[in-house]
Amino acid sequence: MFQRPSLPSLPSLGRVFLPAMLLVLVAACSPDASQKDPVAEAKFENERRISSEDVTKKQERDAEFMVNTAVASLMTVQLSQLAQQKAALPAVRALAGKLQTDHTTLDQALQNLAQQKSIVLPTGLGNDQQKRYREFGSYTGGSFDREYISQLTDSYKQLAEAFDDMREEAYDGDIRGFAANYLPIVQQHLSQLKDLEDQTEDLK
Length: 204
What we know:
The chain is mostly helical. The chain has helices at about 40-55, 55-85, 90-115, 125-135, 140-170, 175-200. It has a single domain, classed as Ferritin, core subunit, four-helix bundle (Ferritin, Up-down Bundle), CATH 1.20.1260. The radius of gyration is 17 Å and the shape is globular.
């Protein structure tokens, strides 16, 4: 379990801003909680505020980064909960437990930052993520391990690239700080996933 980094001044990630009431990420939200798409709703609220307040394109990118990070983190937590029940390899179950714990800490920092910046985070998985999550219900044994590691490896590659970019390019200084502080954690997770990818790619 990693120690929560001390943030010089918290930064952020995605595309979303809330006018009055802030919608925060609910990490325990069920993938099938609503027929509406929480990600689309969050982006709509952010774009509406950006339009009304003439916020710059860089601020739009900050919001998008936070939204995308929130969704990726929620997907990681929910798939990792499933992996601890269904994974065949002890190493996969162990990593799933670490990812779930670490992302709970990251999620809290992200929520706090979003609240400070009046950025709307999705309250659950988007429709595409819900569909993908449901597919994991049909995987068993080695096929589950292979698909879980492959899914998260692809997700972490995108996260690592986004965090690396935003630690220098985010408009908001707190968002730059957030990206800089959590980038090493994201890179560490990606390295661990790549190691397991070699072990699981031929599993059936």
